[in-house]
Amino acid sequence: MDRRSFLLGTSTLALSQLLFGCGGNNQTQLKVQLLKGSIPGQVVNQFHKGLQQQVQLKFTPVEQIQGLFQQLQNWQQKPKATDEQGWKRFIPFMQGQKTADADLVTLGDYWLKAAIEQKLIQPLQEVQGNQLKQWSALDEKWKLLVTRNEQGNLDTQGKVWGAPYRWGSTVIVYNRDKLRKLGWTPKDWSDLWRDGVQQQISLLNQPREVIGLVLKKLGKSYNTENLDQVPDLEKELQTLNQQVKFYSSNNYLEPLIMGDTWLAVGWSSDVLPVLGRYPQLGAVIPQSGTAIWADLWVRPAGITTKSSLSDQWIDFCWQPSTAKQISVLTKSNSPISTNITASDIPEPLWSLLESDVYDGREVFDKSEFLLPLPPSAIKQYESLFAKIKV
């Protein structure tokens, strides 16, 4: 599961690169493969200008986190005996490359366990290490998220496997014009069960997200392992399903804009960029808490260079002024306190961006990351989700 786990399209093949610094084989390099749109180009430029040595920065954006994860996998694959002359040679990160071609890569927090288990990445540091100078500025919730054991599970005695640099949440987005005649706007998950919106809602096509929001409505955790022990869960899901027009993880905004649906559950990374362009749309973070996602910097396995450049880049992203830029320009929240004010961002986005780890402490404390679950629990989620959609 991933909030952007779509099939690789042709747009992935036509990626531009942010390149700063003159060439030269002997020049120190920092190579970063990042999620497209998650870091503004001017931030990279500022980092380059602030370096004390001559460095070449190569930042290559990739369309989807799934593509970045597959790239990490490809770097660790043993070369095949047969000569690959098929379709894979046309995809840059599927050309049988033996070693990683990046010092840092963007990965979503949901993929972290799999990346650790499959030995695709290496720790950024020991928990007690001091390479990352800004580590202490992170809220404890972020430190816990990326401190894991060798199996990829949360472990306060583990190692630091990722550096969060921006985050967002699952939100309710709605068409103001359609709901005005009903006399209310959504505030919490329970509003999805209201009269008047039957067959007017779209939900994400993701078991953890849909079942999770119902669990949240019932006062339970998104990460509940035994669904059989939650009274009325299936009944609530069946009732919610009657309100749903369709399930989709990528095509839920256009019907809402057109008025074909009235409410949708979606990811803030999709929703925030369109709010300013379509004033008929509003969005809210449910008051009882929601699911949180994070974009992380991870270090591919096999990178042996001892250059401190990658640590410098991570620390630069965690500086308050840089974190504020990333947050405002990419329309996301920051794991670092940024002191964003209403004048920094358009009004439609304020209610969604003010909920960072300090300004929106109450809602943030109620919200949860989608943490790894045992295979038996995952099967429960998938089975129940398939059952209620029939």
UniProtKB/TrEMBL annotation:
One of its GO terms (molecular function) is polyamine binding. Its main location: periplasm. This is ABC.SP.S, putative spermidine/putrescine transport system substrate-binding protein. It is found in: Periplasm. InterPro entries: Sperm_putr-bd. Residues 223-250 form a coiled coil. Keywords: Coiled coil, Periplasm, Signal, Transport. One of its GO terms (biological process) is polyamine transport. GO terms for cellular component: periplasmic space.
